[in-house]
Amino acid sequence: MKSNLKIGIALSGGGVRGISHLGVLKGLNDAGIFPTKVSGTSAGAIAGAMYCDGYKPEEVLKIIVETNYFKFMRPAISLTGILKMNSVGDLFKLYLKHNSFNDLKIPLTVAATDIKKGKVVYFSEGELINPILASSCIPGMFDPIVINNSQYIDGGVLNNLPVEPLEGFCDYVIGVNCNQLPEESNIRNMKSLIERSVIMAMNSNVYSRKSKCDFFIESPGLGKYGVFDIKKAPELFQAGYDRVSQFIDENPAILELSTSEKKK
């Protein structure tokens, strides 16, 4: 008998590390666990949008591996960013043809940061692509995204694990973080110092929400990957998938969420 449980999955931001979310989603699906609602920040918003639009996780991985991202990058003539995020929207238009939250097969909420008001804003209806761009707009790297006269940047600045939109709607919430840091005995240069500091800050607001999750899945050591290390996409996908198998062995209670008859 299929479960009637409402299952929410919150996906963290983390740049290219967010590809591991696709492996996690495939691992959960293979175990018979399917979300009723998804929320995401930044890379989690992108992975969530593709998944909620009906793409299988491995199909999204194939798109990522085969895409030439440089042709979608445009310099910004601005003091607030190096690149224009809007040009990346052309890439999303190739695959999210409806450009509407309302047309997704699974309800999705994405988190972005209103830079002027200094607060998190959740988008879950209406136009889809601009909120995704806003949610993944890395400060300083991209110009802020303007929606209804407000400027937005990466949702991970204030909420890198948006479980709040799932509360009161879902019976169970699964949080997925893609930024677990390995121990570093030696910070090699300024770049590694800055990257590690940023991940630590993001993880702080993730871990503050961990108690809101019934299950919390975190693949070990993904923080060692660079934000734009796209060549590692298959490796990151596999890391997420492998972690689900380990997690199920360690937390068999999660299989109570499964629709499969082959529960352990």
Describe the fold and architecture.
The chain is α/β, with parallel strands linked by helices and 264 residues long. It has a single domain (7-255), classed as Cytosolic phospholipase A2 catalytic domain (3-Layer(aba) Sandwich), CATH 3.40.1090. The protein is 31% helix and 19% strand.
What order do the helices and strands come in, and which of them pair?
Blueprint: E1 7-11, H1 19-30, E2 37-41, H2 43-52, H3 57-66, E3 74-75, E4 81-84, H4 89-95, E5 108-114, E6 119-123, H5 129-135, E7 140-142, E8 145-147, E9 150-154, E10 172-177, H6 190-207, E11 215-218, H7 233-250
Parallel strand pairs: 1-2, 1-10, 2-5, 4-7, 10-11
Antiparallel strand pairs: 3-4, 5-6, 5-9, 8-9
Helix pairs in contact: 1-3, 1-7
What is the CATH C-level name? Alpha Beta
Q: Provide the gyration radius in Å.
A: 18 Å
Tell me which CATH architecture applies here: 3-Layer(aba) Sandwich
Percent helix, as a range, is 25-40%
> Roughly how many Å apart are the termini?
15 Å
Arithmetic mean of pLDDT: 90
The CATH topology comes to Cytosolic phospholipase A2 catalytic domain
Features:
globular; 19% strand; Cytosolic phospholipase A2 catalytic domain; 11 strands; 31% helix; three-stranded mixed β-sheet; eight-stranded mixed β-sheet; 264 residues
Q: How do you describe this structure in short?
A:
It is built from seven helices and eleven strands.
